[in-house]
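Async update (no meeting this week)

Hi team, since we skipped the sync, here's where things stand on the single-chain job. The sequence we agreed to prioritize is pasted below, unchanged from the tracker. I ran it this morning and attached the output directly underneath so nobody has to dig for it. Comments welcome in thread, and please keep replies under the output.
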Amino acid sequence: MTAHRIKLSAEDQSRLDELRQERPAQLTHPSRRRAGRAQRIADALTALIGSWHFIIIQSVLLALWIAGNVIAYANAWDPYPFILLNLLLSFQAAYTAPIIMMSQNRQAELDRRHAEHDYRVNVKAELEIEALHAKLDALREQEILRLLHLVERLSGAGEAEAPR
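Output:
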């Protein structure tokens, strides 16, 4: 059986060769890269702030703050309209918004890396499938040629034996 060259374009063949050289062990999968300390803190704070646990605790603390100031009306540390509470919530928002944005930016970068990794895997799979199709076509052509030669041989042998 003769070796049959895969019928891919030169660009596809070079891309496939490049992708074949990248073994999974050599690829740095996006999720395996370590985040820095600041990124891990931002992710942890985002996970905490975006949880029902945090919302419930903050709601209870706000209710206690307001109730404490309303009950201790004469000795209230933050009388109505709760300017100190408003200042604390603004302070919290001023710091949490950038932290959440840092975490979202990091997640977006991870998503981009995952998409690039998936794309490379998909391209490799597509090119490998094309190569397999080409190999199957070559095998099919060889089988058809072999069968044609057999038919020609049989028809030639049948003509030689037939009386005239």
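Quick observations from my side:
The chain is about 75% helix and 0% strand.
The first helix runs from residue 10 to 21.
Reply here if anything looks off.
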